[in-house]
Automatic annotation (TrEMBL):
Transmembrane segments: none annotated. The keyword Heme does not apply. GO terms for cellular component: cell outer membrane. Coiled coil: none annotated. It comes from Flagellimonas sediminis. It is found in: Cell outer membrane. It is a multi-pass membrane protein. One of its GO terms (molecular function) is long-chain fatty acid transporting porin activity. It comes from the Bacteria. Belongs to the OmpP1/FadL family. InterPro entries: OMPP1/FadL/TodX (IPR005017). This is Hydrocarbon degradation protein. Keywords: Cell outer membrane, Membrane, Signal, Transmembrane, Transmembrane beta strand. Residues 1-21 form the signal peptide.
Amino acid sequence: MKNFFFLWCVYLFSTTMFSQAGHIMQGVGSVNMSMGGAATAQPLDISGALHWNPATISTFDDTILKLDVGLFFSSPELSSTVPEFDGEGQPTGNFYSGTTKDDRGVSPMPALAMVWGKPESKHTFGASVFGISGFGVTFPESMSNPINMPQSMGGFGRVESDYMLLQIGLAWAYELTDELSFGIQPTLDYAALELMPNPTANPTQAGYPSTDKASALGFGGQVGLFYNSHSGIKAGVSYKTTQYFGDFELDNTYLDGTTGTNSFNMDYPAILSFGLGYSLGTIDLALDYRIVDYENTDGFSAVGWTQTASVQGFGWKNINIVSAGLQYKGINKFPIRVGYTYSSNPIDSDVAFFNIPATAIIKNAFQVGFSYEFSDKFTMDALYHYGSSGGSTSGPLLNPQFAQAYPPYGAIPGSKVSYDMTTSMIGIGASIKL
């Protein structure tokens, strides 16, 4: 029975790098990240333009190639408190608490983009390969934290995970007028997932299994409009459709050596973005507002236990994201940028246990960056990001066997699971005009 106490904590480990705004990385590439991810109406580089509003690539008339690599560091901490029971299964009145720190290390986040067009043409084209989501954590087995105790003692033991989502896009923008552009971008996605242990599988007497790495393909698209007054004021709107994935087919191995399989579907949510931009002299300003539709996304909309004590989904609410950035170009060949990102939390306390994976959400993120223009054709960029969850997400541990006595999910009296983190990222990028 104690195994159920910690079930969904495992899923925490499957979403650690979903650590910017829910399941959404706040930006792509060093320039866009340093502007807080704001680019729907202020295309300062091709990566941010392709990711947030394909219509904005109409501002680029050259053939441009851009490569970015980010090194992502996180410092998650997982804490738990459980009541102690006597030999007859009755609470003793004592509690057992502990904290485990992640020792995973660094996760890379790549981004490759290209646009091409001509000044006399109304058409601009683009292609991109972006790592838009990913995670990986390692919480070692520990006798000092109930969750990381061996499964035979009611915990989950060592917890490891790897997840990545790679998105490929092909974009086309058309200048309807001198001020207004339209853009469209179909996307193809590849995701891979590995869990140790796997809470989406049915438990046996041996506990919950570990998985081999599984993959899934997805598809979707994006459309956008971009208005440039050519007197400083800019505006944009874009809509990313849901990225529809096939199921992860997970091959499971239990601690007693038995095997099994299960399927789990996790799509990528639709995003509606509105943006304003303003450019005057040496200053560029950008402000974006986004709505992320988790409530209609497979893997996130469902919540609770199945009849076999596996987990249905996250049970997330929709979130709001605000991104803002400023670029100063007063120093010759050396533009400087600062950015800020705010994200609301999709998790209610009553389902916090199901979402310990998602408590890695970063509420406040701060960025600084700069570029150096070596020539008219070659520029290098640098970024530093720091984010904080703004406190822990916490709630009671849940047990399906207690659901009748403590509906709807079986909250264990006196128990608590909490998770918080900080993140940092160093990024570099290079842009070449061919």
